[in-house]
Amino acid sequence: MRFITSTVLLVAATAPTNGLRESIEIPSKECLANDDATCSTSASTSASTASSDSIKRNSKTHDTKGYTTTNTNPSNNNSPPDTCTLYLAPSTIPHSILGLFSGTIIPQYQNVNYHLSSHVNNPYEADEESQWNDLYIPVADIYKALPYRGQQRFPSWLSYVWPAERGLFYKEGEMGVFPNFPDEVKDYDDGLCHATGLEFYMDDYANDMEAEEGEHNEEARPSMRISALAPGLSSLANSHPSMHNMDRNYLDSRVDYEGMQAPWQPGAGAFTPHHGVEFHATKGVRAGMELLLDYGNEWHQRMGDKLRGWQRRKKREEQLKEDEKKIRNSPGFVEGIDRKWDVMDIHERFSCPEELPTEQGKRDRLSVGMAVDSSELKNGTKPYSSYRNNTPHPYDNVEDHPNKEEVKIPNVNNADDITRSLPWLQEHGVCLSSGKLSIRKSEIPYAGRGVFADVSIKKDDVILTSPLLAMRKEDVKIYKSDPDQQFVRNVVDKTTVIGYEMLMNYAFSHEDSPMLLVPLAPIANFINHGGVMSSEDPDRKDANVQVRWPKDGGSAAKLFAWAYQHNQYEDQSFDESKAKDLPINPWLQDHPIDVMQKSGKLALEYVAIRDIEKGEEVTIDYGPLWREAWMDLSRTSPYSRSGYFRHSIGVPEGFYPQNWLNVSDQYEIAEVDDL
Question: Residue 628 CA to chain centroid, in angstroms?
Fold first, then answer.
């Protein structure tokens, strides 16, 4: 997805179409071959019809405008295997932080994944068989953001999840999952929660025959919408209502259980069956152009409203005099959290009479034993307040609203505005795909698909860099719920866990930390467990890759040091002179509660721990706890298994810093049931 692409309200959104126009303009091959940026993109009716038929099979709605896909690097299509075809770099979209950029030209209507996963000599004769595509992981529980679940903020990782219906995790009004805040205190990012650009289905096509039937028969198409995390292009691409240049190829998506059936195979239900998530170019894409989706009109409207509210709030803060600011000295106060909940209670007590959990309410509960100060936690856990100082809140009177003066939101208007030079991307970006890796059926029993080396890889080479989601271990639990309860606080029964999200199997963790980390890059979540790491014995074919934090001096370290401290509302442009002075991997110094609000802004690297041969599967060591849990399940009689395999991936020793271990993920004042 995303990281927030704001603004764009000053550009009229293109209305979705129910079908294709009779005459569709497509980029001229002659113009592209001559590197002519001003040539016409019109083509013959027959060519238009052919392109129309091709695109109609693969998408719901289509933008029929095409950019001239000027190749800013003519030699790019004959690039060597170490040339990057997909970059992650500072976005061109205001307030978006990081974005995806193509390292090669992609003609209109062609398969985006094919061009990004390999080096194409002639983009117009592509065989459309991509080396990798994305998967998506179902998210079953809709109550992740419920305040009584222990959340004091909207979980940042949830902003990367495509909802089954708009606003599923964030609803306003009575019995809402996550009540609404006034604009002046809306300082969280709900991301894709109100996006409508992509859809994901439980009953996806199983094979080409089903897809062909669905193409011609609407009743045969997938219909069971699900919420899903789709790492890769779906999660990392930003949005613009008129400059978007790619969309899903829905007929290429597949559901495949690799022949596994529960309860017989222990791998059944352990990995997502949903793969084949691919995209086509709705406009011609230049080398160096940012890849953009369309999240939908409402998403853009809401994002613009939030930015305007924040800008009014910032102006108000600047006008306040120091003597008008009051410091709230009550126990456990944290800037932007306590006051926010108090304001919410004042504004919504009549529309949401569900006993909303303000900090004052929690303190009232202290006196009657219904809540506890987390500083009293046992077992040496550290309270959150020891990591963050109390600071004043800018509003001493919650009824004193900012003025309604309109503010201008910056925007982009043409293809040049969303294009960076390849040398700039090579210097300031991180490569996510370079043609070295591909995805195909794993040779490991019960593993499903895996990642394979398409070239020889040397020891200590970084084969992949991935941004990370940061989430609570609590978030993968699925509790018994009853949406018909009178009060929101009673909807979730935290005494009864009925299951765990499949997402748990894709997350890194440490047994003594409350935080999980989930890779977001393409390819990363297909890397299987390969046994114990053995860098000293070249004859052993166990794990050949290990994860580490970005290395000091590397492009990933500089990029994510900048992204982590970036305030999306300030829209700070990337400044290399300042970025190089920032602390490396700053998240390692923060409390997990703070890190868990920075999803997408931290990263890890996959590094070869020995030479990897061409054609060899790339694997990591999932750790002793994972191995033990897998062996226990495998040895258990099929009819005795309590459910699907669920276990997070272990990290190397020392990977999690000490300040992430043996700490509480609860706020200073918390409900007894939440501790």
Answer: 30
What is the DSSP track for 484-532? T-SSGGGTEEEEEEEEE-GGGGG-EE-TT-SEEEEE-STTGGGPEE-SS
Cβ atoms of 276 and 297 closer than 8 Å: no
Rounded Cα distance, 411 and 466, in Å? 28
Q: Which two tokens stand for residue 432?
A: 């996510």
Mode of pairing for the β-strands spanning 430-433 and 86-90: antiparallel
Task: Give the integer Cα–Cα distance in Å for 177 and 147.
Answer: 8
Own/partner pairs for 437-442, CB < 8 Å, 24+ apart? 437/131, 437/132, 437/463, 437/464, 437/523, 437/618, 438/117, 438/131, 438/132, 439/131, 439/132, 439/133, 439/523, 439/526, 441/258, 442/528, 442/617
Average pLDDT in the 226-251 region? Answer: 95
Q: Three-state DSSP class for 288? A: coil
Contact (CB, 8 A) for 555 and 462: no
Angle between helices 359-366 and 338-348 (to 10 degrees): 100
Instruction: With beta carbons less than 8 A apart as the criterion, state whether 62 and 281 touch.
Output: no
**Burial label, 289 (beta-carbon count in 10 A; 0-12, 13-18, 19+):** buried
DSSP H helical ranges for 59-111 = none
Helix (H) or strand (E) holding 669: strand 669-671
User: For 398-440, how does the pLDDT look when each residue is reduced to its tens digit (9 = 90+)?
Assistant: 344 444 445 555 678 899 999 999 999 999 999 999 889 999 9
Alpha carbon of residue 444 to chain centroid: 28
Cβ proximity of 506 and 463 under 8 Å: no
- Please say if the pLDDT value at position 627 is more than 70: yes
DSSP state of 117: H
Contacts of 537 (CB under 8 A, 6+ apart): none
647 Cβ contact list (under 8 Å, min separation 6):
504, 505, 625, 626, 629, 630
Query: Among 52, 24, 29, 51, which Cα is nearest to 39's?
Result: 29
User: 228: Cβ–Cβ under 8 A, 6 or more apart, which residues?
Assistant: 136, 137, 138, 139, 161, 162, 200, 274
pTM for the whole thing? 0.80
Note the pLDDT tens digit of each residue in 556-589.
999 999 999 887 667 667 777 676 778 999 999 9
CB 659 within 8 A of CB 591: yes
CB 385 within 8 A of CB 332: yes
Of 520, 568, 479, 647, nearest in space to 161 by CA: 520
Do residues 116 and 88 touch, judged by C-beta distance below 8 A?
A: no
Q: How many CA atoms lie within 13 Å of 436's alpha carbon, on the beta-carbon side?
A: 20
Measured CA to CA in angstroms, residue 149 lies from 136, 154, 338 at distances of 25, 11, 16
Measured distance CA(150)–CA(132) in Å, rounded: 38
DSSP 3-state assignment of 362? Answer: helix
